[in-house]
Amino acid sequence: MTQQQALYKYCLRLGDDALIQSYRLSEWCSNAPILEEDLALTNFALDMTGRAQALLGYAGQIDGQGKTDDDLAYKRGERQFYNHLIMELPNGNFATTIARLLFTSTFEFYFYSDLMNSADATLAAIAAKTVKEVKYHMAHATDWTCRLGDGTQESHRHMQSGIDHHWMYTGELFETDEVDAILQDRNIAVDMASIQQRWHQSITQVLKEATLKIPAGEHMQSGSQQGIHTEYLGHILTEMQYLQRAYPEAIW
Amino acid sequence: MVETRENYEHILTQIIRNQMVRSAHTKEEVFSILSVIPDPEIPVVNIQEMGMLRDVQINDEHGFIIILTPTYTGCPAMHIIEQDIRMTLHTKGVYPAEVKLVYDPAWTTDWMSDVAKAKLKAYGIAPPLHSSCSQDVFAHNIIECPQCHSHDTVMISRFGSTACKSLFQCNDCKEPFEYFKCH
Predict the structure, then answer these.
(1) What is the CATH number of domain A3-246?
(2) Between A39, A122, A251, which is nearest B159 by CB?
(3) Mean pLDDT of all residues belonging to chain A
C-alpha cells in the first residue's frame, strides 16, 4: 500500500464517520423530546456534515480521479464505507443517542486534538476546526449523561442501558491497521493507544459522576476497517443514495 | 451537459483565461468591492468584518484568487457567500476570478472586528464574550442583554437557529435574544 492509498483510506474513514453519524442525528429532527434538543442534535449533525464535506473532498483530491465529496457520499456501496459500526447503529431512545454521543464525541475530541499536529497540513487544519465544534458536542453529551444517570430511577435505567448497549462497539474506535502504520511513520496519523487511554479515563470519570457502571463485557465488535458493517448501514445508504441511484448525475 | 448559469460563467471564464487577459484591478480595489458583501445570516455585518474574507491573490495563471475561510464547517451560508462573491466580481468586471476555500488557519471569533461586534449588538445579537475559544466557553458567563443592557440574563439553549448562536433570555426586560458563541 502506498502512502497515497493509505491517506485516501484514512480520510474516507474519518469522513464516513462524520457523514453516517450526521445522518443518524438528523433523524432526530422534529422528533427530539424538547425543542432545544431538536436544535442541539441537528446543530451537531450540521457540524458533522460540514466535516464530512471537508474530509471526503480532500479524499477525492488525494485519489486524483476527479471524485467530488458528493461522488464519494452517494456512489459508493456498503462495502466501500469505512465508518465505525457505532456510528450507524439506530438512535434508540434519547438516552441511547446520548450514550453514543458521549462515546463518540469524547473519542473525537481526543482524536482531533492530536490530529491538529499532523504533518499533513490539510488534515491538521480540518482537525483544528473540528476540535472547536466537538467540544460543544462533548460538553452536551456529558451534561445529559450526568443529568439522566443521576436523575430518576427511570432515567438512570435508560441511561445505563444506552451505555451497556454501545459498549461492545467502542473497542473498534481504537483499532489500527496497515493504513495507520504507514501514516504514523510519516507523522500524519495519530497514536491510537494514547487516545484510548485518555478516552477511557475521561469516560470512567463521567460515568462515575453520573452514578453509572462501566460495563464489564470484554467482547468488542469489529469489521468496519474491512468494510464489513452491521445490517443497518445498507438501509441508511438505500435512503441516502436513492436520488443518485434512481437519477444518476442529477444536479440542482 | 445541462445549460446552467454556472456552466455559462465557467465557459466564459475559460475563454477569457485562454486570451490571457486580466482586468486591471488592484488587490485593494478587489477588497473594497468584496467588502460590501453582507453575511447572509446577519446582514448588518459584511464578510470582511466577520473575518471570512482572508486574502486576495493576483497571479498570471489564475487571475484573482479570493481566499475565503468558513466560520463553521457546516455553515450553509458559505455557499451563498461564494456565489455572492462570484456575482459581485462578475458585475464589477473583475476577471478571471476564483474562490478558494481554506481551512488553515481555522476561523475564530477573534477575527471579528470591534466594528462588527458593535453592529451585532445594535442588531440585537450579543457579541462573543471571549477573545478566543477556550474552556471559558462553558463557564457560567454573564452575557449582557443587547436590548436593555441588563446583566441578569439566563441561557435557554446552548444551540440556536444557526450553528454560531445560543439562545438567551433577559430577566429584566424579559426579551429573548441570541448570543454569538465563542469559536
Answers:
(1) 1.20.1260.10
(2) A39
(3) 97
Compute the distance between CA of residue B123 and CA of residue B49 in angstroms, rounded to an integer. Answer: 15
Closest residue of A to B168, CA-based? A36
Q: What is the pLDDT of residues A73-112, one digit of tens each?
A: 999 999 999 999 999 999 999 999 999 999 999 999 999 9
* pLDDT tens for each residue of A34-62: 999 999 999 999 999 999 999 999 999 99
Is omega for the bond preceding A90 within 30 degrees of 0, making it cis? Answer: no
Asked whether the beta carbons of A135 and A126 are under 8 A apart, the reply is: no
Domains of chain B with CATH codes: 5-101 (3.30.300.130), 125-180 (no CATH)
Cell readout for B28 is 485593494
Instruction: Establish whether this prediction's ipTM goes over 0.85.
Output: no
Instruction: Look up the pTM and report it.
Output: 0.88
Contacts of B157 (CB under 8 A, 6+ apart): A35, A36, A39, A40, B166, B167
Interface test with B, best of A14, A37, A39 (most B CBs within 10 A): A39
- Which residue among B73, B105, B159 places its CB closest to the CB of A40? B159
Chain B stretch 83-102, residues whose beta carbon is closer than 8 A to a beta carbon of chain A:
102
> Which residues of chain B are within 8 Å of residue A39 when distances are taken between CB atoms?
157, 159-161
Per-residue model confidence as pLDDT tens digits over B34-81: 998 999 888 999 999 999 999 999 988 889 999 999 888 888 888 899
The closest CB to that of B73, out of A51, A124, A136, belongs to: A51
Residues of B with CB below 8 A from A53's CB?
73-74
Determine the Cα–Cα distance for residues B111 and A50; give it in Å rounded to an integer.
Answer: 21
